[in-house]
Amino acid sequence: MSGSRMKPRFAVFIPAFRHNPAYRNTMHFEGTKEMLEPTEIRREQGFILEPARKIPIVRDVDVLVCGGGPAGVGAALGAARTGAKTMLIERNAFLGGAATAVIMNTWNVPISHMTGVAREITLKLAERSGAVIAGPTVPFDPEALKELSVDLLKQAGVEILNYTWVVDPIMEGRRIRGAVIQNKSGRQAILARAVVDATGDADIAAAAGAEYVMGREKDHKMRPVSVLFRMGGVDVRRAVEYCRSCPAENFTADRNFHILDLDKGLVRMSGFFDIADKARAAGELPEEIHYIRFEGVDVKRGIVTVNNSRVYGVDGTNAWDITRADIEARLQNRKLYAVIKKYIPGFENAFVVDSSANIGVRETRRARGSQLLSEEDILANRTYPDSVAKVWRHHAAGRDWHSPDGSEGSAQNLVYRTLQTDLNWFEMPWAIFVPNNVEGLAVAGRVLSVTHEADMWTRGQYCCLVTGQVAGTAAALAALRNSSPRALDVSTLQRALVAQGVDIGEARKNLVAEVA
Ligand SMILES: Cc1cc2nc3c(=O)[nH]c(=O)nc-3n(C[C@H](O)[C@H](O)[C@H](O)COP(=O)(O)OP(=O)(O)OC[C@H]3O[C@@H](n4cnc5c(N)ncnc54)[C@H](O)[C@@H]3O)c2cc1C
Hints:
Layout: H1 21-26, E1 40-42, E2 47-49, E3 57-66, H2 70-81, E4 86-89, H3 98-101, E5 106-107, H4 116-127, E6 138-139, H5 142-156, E7 159-161, E8 165-172, E9 175-183, E10 186-197, H6 203-207, E11 212-214, E12 229-232, H7 236-245, E13 259-261, E14 266-271, H8 273-281, E15 292-298, E16 303-306, H9 319-343, E17 351-355, E18 365-367, H10 375-379, E19 387-395, H11 415-418, E20 422-429, E21 441-443, H12 452-458, H13 461-480, H14 490-499, H15 507-515
Parallel strand pairs: 3-4, 3-10, 4-7, 10-21
Antiparallel strand pairs: 1-2, 5-6, 8-9, 9-10, 11-18, 12-16, 12-17, 13-14, 14-15, 15-16, 19-20
Helix pairs in contact: 2-5, 2-13, 13-14
The structure holds flavin-adenine dinucleotide.
């Protein structure tokens, strides 16, 4: 079938939903696809030419949120609560992103320093016995978060569509007008007045032509990827007693990473450097594993999350790479499991509860906006007239413990062993949410315009929830004004965020002054 274009072999007219309301609710269409042209196979040139085809428009919304991780959930809540007709598309069967699909269930911020929907979610999780809010970090139950996310989004009137990939932006010149989605029902179009890219990988922003950077600026290397698993049947009390009986240097020095507060139900164990070194020397652990870390600890039920497999040199936007890495990480986990059971008291009867549904990708694309947040900005506690969030995080200057260069936690790489984090704050200017080159788009979560080093501060799930709320609220305000996020009057956005309980930092004083 190579060579010149052929005439259509068949064409079946499928009406768009606005002409046939039945499609609107069911999104179900029958029979043969409407193909306007046949596929052209150009084997010798190494590609095929896809035929043009009509795609039904199944929704027309104010705000389309792409991705249902912490940023997407925050964005959908921010948009819907601002009064926008909001839809959220998620490729998985459930919401939560890395918090649920990777079972990465610890937020590194105390409840006292949380703000906006992130604070609301944490408090509601605690009410449902789904989080422990007694200390510097907040372990939570991923299943409780899945349920709560749906409850909150439904209450806010967000339409959720799971099991669906957002595959292409719909563009009118430089302006994004929605997205093409793909799922069991086929390929469909969603029109939107504003779009939030919360895919973690800037899938939509990149496809729309937004400027972005992949990985670390100097060499485009990315942080390691991991598959996590949870162990049940753990005698946490016994494990804690063992930790207490060991020399301090066997564990990370950081009081936020190594917490043995049984009475508060707050335990996070990190280090076991001696065991890891011994097991590695005996060939029982892979070369990449230099320490063992249990977090998201559910003291009562004896469940811990093991966050230790590390695969380097992986591009998280390349399906071949992540498949290879996923398989490798799971092989690492089998070894970890055996070593943990063999050497760590309290784990003798432990078993695997589950493992990450998705591989945990820490870093891929970051958008570039008119401003770039750097670690220097963060360390200087810079304030901004267009600040839209003041965020707190346990971290320390230059302490990149997930370096793309490897040897995380090893005796040669002391960052993780000697780490001492403090609770620091930083402000986030609105300009880092708006990527260059595309109109009608805001980004949130991992996708913000920040440097590789600053990403160590902004990538935490708590921060992603907050930045999601900012982007969603902004997208809603823009959509409702028939404007673009870039053109938004920042003080309008700031007021809306303050009304939603978000701490915007110093800029709030200007708002108060203006009102007075
Ligand atoms: C292994 C690991 C350990 C971590 N440890 C911690 C920690 O201890 N504490 C902490 O706070 N943070 C931690 N992080 C960081 C944090 O989890 C992420 O940075 C954060 O989840 C990013 O949020 P996000 O919403 O931007 O992206 P994600 O959480 O990645 O969510 C993106 C969502 O979009 C969906 N999606 C992606 N592409 C598409 C598409 N094209 N169409 C439809 N849906 C799509 C995904 O399925 C996912 O649900 C860790 C991350 C990893 C990977």
